[in-house]
Specification:
Shape of chain C: globular
Largest interface: B-E, 82 and 82 residues
Shape of chain B: globular
Largest sheet of chain C: 8 strands, mixed
Bound molecules: thiamine diphosphate, iron/sulfur cluster, magnesium ion
CATH class of the largest domain in chain B: Alpha Beta
CATH topology of the largest domain in chain B: Rossmann fold
Number of domains of chain B: 2
Number of domains of chain C: 1
CATH architecture of chain C: 3-Layer(aba) Sandwich
Distance between the termini of chain C: 32 Å
Structural class of chain B: alpha/beta
CATH superfamily of the largest domain in chain B: Thiamin diphosphate (ThDP)-binding fold, Pyr/PP domains
Radius of gyration of chain B: 20 Å
Distance between the termini of chain B: 49 Å
Oligomer: heterooctamer
CATH topology of chain C: Rossmann fold
Number of strands of chain C: 10
Number of strands of chain B: 16
Strand order of the largest sheet of chain B: 3-2-4-5-7-6-13
Number of helices of chain B: 13
CATH superfamily of chain C: Thiamin diphosphate (ThDP)-binding fold, Pyr/PP domains
Order of helices and strands of chain C: HEHEHEHHEEEHEHEHHEEHH
CATH architecture of the largest domain in chain B: 3-Layer(aba) Sandwich
Largest sheet of chain B: 7 strands, mixed
Chains: A alpha/beta (167), B alpha/beta (388), C alpha/beta (300), D alpha+beta (85)
Number of helices of chain C: 11
Order of helices and strands of chain B: EHEHEHEHHEHEHEEHEHEEHEEHEHEHE
């Protein structure tokens, strides 16, 4: 389950209409990929890609060197970046940068460097767009047993970290 | 129940709810998630069907033909050149043999060059073949169309196969809310398949005979055409009944959006319609009176309905995710729309856009409206001139 | 045992007089009995037996295309299986449909191991379309697409060794060859195949397509078929799960006798005998004899 | 006559086509020689030979006159004769 | 030299004179006589070409693609469902790969039901695929079109494959006088093929790459469409040059017959045009002012030329040996003709006739003129109502 | 001898890290040298190496469709032959393209006996489209179209025995198997094949499609390939004109070691070991060992 | 070479435009077949079958019992029938019936019961539409050596027989 | 840039795609241990290893960090390390 699907599901659980889709590429494992989410109180009809997002989430900060990940981000938007250290160039003006070391967190709690759930916890906190409960519900639906609990713990920890002031 | 899921999985759920006895398909992007999900259902015992994982599309549809002729409801799914074009001969054959097979098409471009991305060249290129064609705008619609397709196809005055088409990736790989009916509901809507003719040692018949010299062939083709016209009525009736049961009415072969006093109307098929609707709202807000006629049933071609919907609109822009190479209008849908409005003085233009996954934005739709106003059309829209 | 007196293939069909495939159709249905569903490919047999509305088939029969009979049969079988129906599924297809264009669907069907019997009626060319070469056309036969000519002695490729190796490799349960020269043997093998679970294959020599082979009239259908066996160019055998279990033994005659009777080999004898080519054909018969051990030893 | 959906038909009509008209030579059997072995009945591609009450009968509506029966009869009981139609 | 011969043999002669290096085809009625004759020529050393007798049409055209990509001029011939439809995927592919292959099509119906007889459903059904389509009226014309096809296809601003279509049996199996040029003449008209791109270890390139995400695909399709438009000009130029050398001019994509003051015009393709011309003479003798616009080049569609030819004619009857099942006009050509005359007030009707070998007589043509006069059209013509 | 240092497959391609087929592409071109024309089928290798305009191929390369590479290659060869050109023609196709959908064109090309070398890179599934079953998928492997589940232990059919029987039956001059585990052997066999007249076939195990097999990372590409050979589930051998001429001998390890490393077999071990299924797989390895005589005897 | 092709060729040799085509069937060897010829001073454009012929040639008179071979034959037309005896029913009024025993003639001269050339000789004589010389030329082009001569002899003999008064 | 007819291209552009950016771990060689056997050069799927003047060099523009070289080096001369980009 990609992060985008996770956000969409959590949003859906919060009673919001949502749409998630990847930027359909042929990339092989290892190459950078992109996905989009829209949510709205009304049914989402638009099908084009997203050029001016309100939020961006960067799962691998090393990409920032190669790709202009912040491009199009609206003024007042939020960029959530998974990174160990917190300085990047090219963050547009008026954009709020929130960083979190999701990899370490995931390794610590899940034992794997899989950052989807951690980042989604952070996303919930940073944007207020999805509720932590909905995210937990989505995770519980998706994973079973202890795996669900671990993922929820990771998401919750990230949520708290960001709420506490991020970084 | 409302759920959020990937388009392909919703289609797989729909297929399952229709209780096919035999499922046969061959993987091709972007149809793969459908057949993978069905394989899982069979492996887990959720779906009691023979699942035939075949060696090519040629066999996939041929298997379906055999099972259908033996009296089973069957399901298949494919896409694109490899898929639909490799089985093209069988596609024509199935219609002539009048087997009510339902096949999902995750629409994709045709090569060369190879492109796995979306346009509608694949199903459009088989518009002569005698299948009915339904196009869905969103995951909900394309899901529901499967139920309607089986119901219409299996009417004894129809007995024809149908495509349920939806844009590859854009719908097949999108994750969005969808209301999936329960098995009980679908059982109530779609009764078990009652074959009209079948292979049965107790009542032997010969199926797929040849039409000797020039004595019968033409009449059989005529009869198929008539049945396809009747499919139109059957789709409409099934769509109405569906609406009564589930609250989502599909009795129309077209859907009009803000057409009331439109100065410019778009005609489009599939997922693009959502973007067009949003663009229309914007245009209307800016005082441009635009509207949309969405084609849901492309075969049989709902000429009368389209003519009615477009009546009085001066300019019509047909948005085509296909090209009939070397034709004058370029798009394949344009000439048929034009024919539908013959003698009304309406100007109809085709715009070829979104081929091979080229993204289409609201601003593109607005730009096309402006072109139509200016009388510029029958052209590609959105070329990257820098690479030409 | 099925009722051998049943006539399930009707008269009134449009085959040439003395047509081997027409006779075979009768024999096959005697072997299967009436609880069968026949899947046909496009070809002579399909055309001569089913001009609408005059079908000669008194059992359920379906034709779709030239290349896809094995897949259609797979679908029929899947449907029957799902509904616990008992009909046997039998494909009857020409050599062109089998050796050439049908290879894809056949390969798939045999790999999947459907419970079907695939019978190839082998008249050694595409008769329906006017005697073009197929993968089953024998070496040096002149056909319209492998004509003998100044630079050619006819078909330059040997008859493809389809059944034993290829279909066994795909896991066929039962593989056999037969000939219209021995009608009871045909019926017996068909009966055995339809009663063997899994995918079975029978290839029946129906040479006496006098139209396509030429040089003799329709009355010699069976005679020529016998000669093919007697000279060793055709071997009647059975294989079960890949092992050879039976082969008809003969006292062999030279291939010339067989070749000379047929117009498609006439260029090997006229204006003069092309001895090296005839020797090559004799070598094929010799190799067959050795491979299948069909020679009756002197003291046998 | 309504066309059958999908170019399908039930058996029964093949016999409308009387292939006897194709015939040039006609088989006649000499029952003196016939040993009633049944070969001709089995191998006629037209199902035009039957064995009824110890008599070999040809169905001349369908016999194409191919001569297979005559050639394969080991008793040489069948002769093909020029037919006056 | 004027000779009398079967249409298929004339085509084989034409193919031979074009000096193909590789010939690959698979037999299918009614194309067989062509390939058989070519096989004979190769066996007798009359034609120095690699003749590949393949196992299916899928291979036949794929072989041609490979040889063409390696730099050879190649030839193929096919027909119908088995032929053209089994290779449909390759047909689209070859156009996108821009290989100037010439393939003769002995036009035949598509099944089910199986029919080996003539109509034009096969090539018409692949009208989107990017090949140019030439249709011949008689043995002479279809023979000559092969020379023109190679010449046009191989122009470096075209580089597209083409069909040379002629009615199966009606032309392929008819024996009639035809002027077959000499080898010297054809050598002078058609220079050796100079590939633009080829597989060559000395200058390696990659052919048939895929068009990554949505960056290039649409532009390649556009470029193919442009090249197909240019093929129109190249066909016309080659037809003109041919006329200068051989006295038979084919510069027009259409040919007008007694159109000057016509009250009713027929539009038709192929052998039917001969019958129509005779019918027109009869009608004219009876005071009915009828005329014919024969379409010789169907792709690229010569819309402007057609519009010019039909200018001022009140009623147009498009005679269609094809049906786009479930469409409103029924015939596939009708909507394009209608589009060509947009805004002129001309009434255009389609008549589906002659399917699966149904004979078409002068009186049928006259009857259709009468229907067109009455405004009755977009219908089958000539059904045997007694069997319906 | 060709220059082994030539690099004819460029970097910058888009394969997963540690991709076996990517490595194979390099090795093949080292075996052929630059006087070659490559014909590809649709699949992972085609996609990762040729996104327009960035081709990784420094030799002539052509791709048409998924199913027709053997026919395209036949055409290329015919053209070369006609013009006395010297390039070698090599198909490089996936196992799906070879075992399944390509069977028709392959059968035709091998029957016609073109002078081509057909190399199948066998990663044992359709990787390009997301790991669906092919005829080369081993018994019990879980793929997206043969998923393990409540009623299923994965792929229910054995890996099809394509090369030895089927292609030899078609008259292949040279048939060999190889593995990226032994790069020099691959190069040697490729070189031999392209220099052998007639149609040749090499099937190369490129298992370590870590994406498709799962459970290990890309660094183990070669390690896993070696295990396949060591356990006897993959045998490296050569056949000339239908006769086995060489097979790599091993001291066999149990199949478990190999299976356990891979996610696609995980269901055979979790939640608990499905011993009878593992035993069936062991039996396949044992049968291979017997058939090809690969076991090193104790005293060897 | 069918009789129809032979007539067309001979007509062509006589400088007349001609068109020959079979009634395209799927019949197997033995079943009755039909072919058409048109000739004219001008190019023949018409492609429909022939419903009202000027001449008909019946190669096997036993067909007359089963098929209405004379149907459509124009008044004043000629029916040429290969037969041993000369009485038929159904010959339309105003039609000239000419019979010839072409089979015996062919057997006698060619040694084979192949009646094409013989009948064509008769046709030339009966109708005057093609010249004997053109027919001979056509035969010489088609057959080689003694075969040509034999066929020519057969045609000539039939020609003479019909000229002498037929039957 | 004009599109090449038929979606064809000459070699040379593949290297535009610097796959080094995919890398997470980076190979480093210890030339003390290296026996210059050449294995790593032969088996790198990215052609990213070369042997120049007795030195093993990694082309970090293309090395995807897959670790095959490290695992297959029988001298254990190559280590994959976490890279700071
Ligand atoms: C006729 C056709 N059917 C399906 C496809 C979709 N498709 C493309 S590649 C592929 C699988 C390739 O598998 P394989 O040959 O094993 O190569 P791999 O991807 O494993 O390298 C499929 C199913 C296609 N391109 N054409
Ligand atoms: C795809 C396709 N290609 C070609 C044909 C034309 N065709 C029909 S039957 C036939 C030959 C049949 O040969 P075979 O299978 O040997 O049967 P036979 O006619 O000899 O009985 C051919 C080439 C077709 N129907 N479909
Ligand atoms: S051509 Fe041969 S197979 Fe066909 S009907 Fe005649 S004898 Fe039978
Ligand atoms: S084959 Fe001869 S002996 Fe036998 S039953 Fe017939 S006629 Fe009598
Ligand atoms: S002659 Fe032929 S058709 Fe007539 S009965 Fe004998 S075998 Fe049958
Ligand atoms: S999926 Fe497998 S074959 Fe494809 S690039 Fe990745 S490792 Fe290579
Ligand atoms: S594999 Fe190891 S030992 Fe061999 S050259 Fe490379 S680094 Fe040196
Ligand atoms: S880590 Fe992988 S890509 Fe990098 S040099 Fe080693 S083998 Fe090559
Ligand atoms: Mg045959
Ligand atoms: Mg694979």
């Amino acid at each position: 389950m990609t992060a985008a699907e996770l956000i969409a599901t959590a949003a859906f659980k919060s009673g919001v209409y949502s749409q998630a889709f990847p930027a359909f590429g042929v990339e092989r494992r290892g190459a950078p990929v992109q996905a989009f989410v829209r949510f709205s109180d009304e049914k989402v009809r638009l099908r084009s890609q997203i050029y001016e997002p309100d939020y961006i989430v960067v799962q691998d900060s090393s990409l920032i060197a190669d790709v202009d990940v912040f491009s199009g981000l609206k003024a007042g938007g939020i960029a959530l970046v998974n990174t160990e250290n917190g300085n990047f160039e090219g963050v547009p003006e008026g954009v709020k940068l929130i960083t979190i070391d999701a990899t370490s967190l995931a390794l610590e709690i899940l034992g794997l460097p899989i950052t989807n759930t951690t980042l989604m916890g952070a996303f919930a906190a940073a944007t207020g767009e999805i509720e932590l409960e909905s995210l937990e519900e989505a995770l519980r639906e998706r994973f079973s047993g202890s795996l669900a609990e671990k993922n929820i713990a990771a998401a919750r920890r990230a949520y708290e970290l960001v709420k506490e002031g991020g970084q | 129940m409302m759920q959020i899921m990937e388009g392909s999985h919703a289609v797989a759920e729909a297929a399952k709810l229709c209780r096919p006895e035999v499922v046969s398909a061959y993987p091709i992007t972007p149809q793969t998630h459908i057949v993978e999900r069905l394989a899982e259902m069979v492996a887990d015992g959720e779906l009691d069907a023979e699942y035939l994982c075949v060696e090519s599309e040629l066999s996939a549809l041929s298997v379906c033909l055999g099972s259908s002729a033996a009296g089973s409801r069957v399901y298949s799914a494919t896409s694109s050149q490899g898929g639909l074009m490799l089985m093209a001969e069988v596609v024509f054959n199935v219609a002539g043999m009048r087997q009510p097979i339902v096949m999902s098409i995750a629409n994709r471009a045709l090569g060369a060059p190879l492109s796995i991305w979306n346009d509608q060249q694949d199903s459009i290129s088989l518009r002569d073949a005698g299948w009915f064609h339904l196009y869905g705008e969103d995951v909900q619609e394309m899901t529901d169309q499967h139920f309607i397709a089986y119901k219409a196809a299996e009417q004894h005055d129809v007995l024809l196969p149908g495509f349920v088409c939806f844009d590859g990736f854009i719908l097949s790989h999108t994750y969005e809310p969808v209301d999936i009916p329960t098995q009980e509901e679908i059982d109530a809507f779609l009764p078990p398949y009652v074959p009209y003719n079948k292979l049965d040692a107790k009542a032997p018949i010969s199926m797929g005979m040849y039409a000797p010299p020039p004595d019968y062939y033409m009449e059989f083709r005529h009869e198929t055409d008539q049945a396809l016209q009747r499919a139109g009525a059957a789709i409409s009736a099934a769509g109405k009944e569906f609406g009564e049961m589930f609250g989502r009415d599909y009795s129309g072969h077209t859907e009009s959006y803000r057409m009331d006093d439109a100065d410019v109307a778009f005609v489009a098929l599939g997922s693009l319609c959502g973007t067009v609707k949003d663009a229309i709202d914007e245009m209307r807000a800016d005082g441009i009176k635009a509207g949309l006629v969405k084609i849901r049933t492309f075969r049989p071609f709902p000429a009368t309905e389209i003519a009615r919907a477009l009546a009085g609109v001066p300019k019509v822009a047909v948005l085509e995710k296909n090209i009939s190479l070397g034709s004058a209008m370029k798009g394949a849908v344009g000439p048929e729309v034009k024919d539908a409005v013959t003698g009304t003085g309406i100007d109809v233009y085709s715009y070829v856009l979104g081929l091979g996954g080229r993204d289409i934005r609201k601003k593109d739709i607005r730009a096309i409206a402006a072109l139509a106003e200016k009388g510029v059309g029958n052209t590609f829209y959105g070329l990257r001139t820098e690479v030409l | 045992m099925v009722d051998k007196s049943l006539e399930l293939f009707d008269c009134g069909h449009r085959a040439c007089g003395g047509c081997g495939p027409a006779l075979l159709a009768r024999l096959i249905l005697k072997g299967t009995g009436e609880n069968v569903i026949v899947v046909a490919s496009t070809g002579c047999m399909e055309v001569f037996s089913t001009p609408y509305p005059e079908t000669a088939w008194k059992v359920p029969w379906i034709h779709s295309l030239f290349e896809n009979a094995a897949a259609v049969a797979s679908g029929v079988e899947a449907s029957l299986k799902h509904n616990n129906r008992t009909e046997k599924v039998v494909c009857i297809c020409g050599d062109g449909a089998t050796f050439d264009i049908g290879m894809l669907c056949i390969s798939g069907a045999f790999e999947r191991g459907h419970d079907i019997t695939y019978i190839c009626y082998d008249n050694e060319a595409y008769m329906n379309t006017g005697i073009q070469r197929s993968g089953a056309t024998p070496y040096d036969a002149s056909t319209t697409t492998s004509p003998a000519g100044r630079l050619s002695t006819g078909n330059s490729l040997p008859k493809k060794d389809l059944p034993p190796q290829i279909l066994n490799a795909h896991g066929a349960s039962y593989v056999a060859t037969a000939s219209v020269a021995y009608p009871m043997d045909v019926m017996k093998k068909v009966e055995k195949a339809v009663n063997t679970p899994g995918a079975c294959y029978i290839q029946v020599h129906t040479p006496p397509c006098s139209t396509g082979w030429g040089g003799f009239d329709g009355s010699k259908t069976i005679e020529i078929a016998k000669q093919a066996i007697e000279c060793g160019l055709w071997v009647n055998y059975e294989m079960e799960n890949g092992e050879l279990t039976a082969a008809k033994k003969v006292r062999r005659i030279p291939v010339e006798t067989y070749l000379k009777a047929q117009k498609r080999f006439r260029h090997l004898f006229k204006p003069q005998a092309v001895t090296e080519e005839i020797a090559k054909i004799q070598a094929i018969a010799d190799a067959n004899a050795k491979k299948y051990g069909i020679d009756i030893e002197r003291n046998e | 006559m309504a066309l059958r959906i999908g170019c399908a038909a039930a058996p029964g009509r093949a016999q409308d086509n009387k292939t006897g008209s194709w015939r040039v030579f006609m088989p006649v059997v000499d029952m003196e020689k016939c040993i009633l072995c049944g070969t001709c009945v089995l191998i006629c591609p037209e199902t035009a030979v039957s064995d009824k009450d110890g008599q070999i009968l040809f169905d001349l509506d369908f016999c194409k006159g191919c001569g297979v029966c005559a050639r394969e009869c080991r008793a040489e009981a069948i002769t093909m004769i020029q037919e006056e139609k």
